[in-house]
Write a structure and sequence with these properties.
This protein is of the alpha+beta class and about 220 residues long. It has 6 helices and 5 strands. Helix 2 runs antiparallel to helix 4.
Length: about 220
Amino acid sequence: MTRTWMCLVPLLFIGAVGCQNALHDENRALRQQNVELQESLRKREGELASRPEAGDLTALQGAIADRDKQIADMQALLNRPQPGEAAAPSNGGFEGITVTRDDKAGTVTVNVPGDVLFASGDAAVKESAKATLGKISSSIKKEFAGKKLMVDGHTDSDPIVRTADKWKDNLDLSAARARSVADYLISDGIAKNLVQIRAFAATDPKSSKGKSRRVEIVVVTR
């Protein structure tokens, strides 16, 4: 009997240790679940805190709608022919002019093809393009009064040949073209202190040489 009892003692001890180990593992798993749950709750609270209130969301949607209307109004004004002008092309762009918005940068950009504005290798605004620039100026003054703007000159990558006596290189030509457009906008009533010119030459090309030759009027809407 004594021998039997002595044999059972180690077995009971081993069983107790096994139970303790199981409880330890279970407690550790529960603690880990608790930590994960608390972390999940903190993330959820952060997400809720970062969400705009209903009133803020409505205001944001209203601001976006206003900006969309400004762009639509500008494009419509550019597309509207003046007396004696031909109607705008059916593709919705007045002689290839497009208006785009970049919400991240806080800008509205009017892209005017260089071939509309200038003769090849030249920086003097064509007489036929002045009405177009007048429309752009009127739209900017109406939709973005008091906002700063940059006039950016761009060219293609072809070396200047025909008018090489006028310009050192494409950078020189792009600067002169930007200045010509800026001067016209200022003469049409946009405050000089709001206008800045920038020259990019061929450093920001488009999908073709024709599209690369352009002047962009970038309005800072913020």
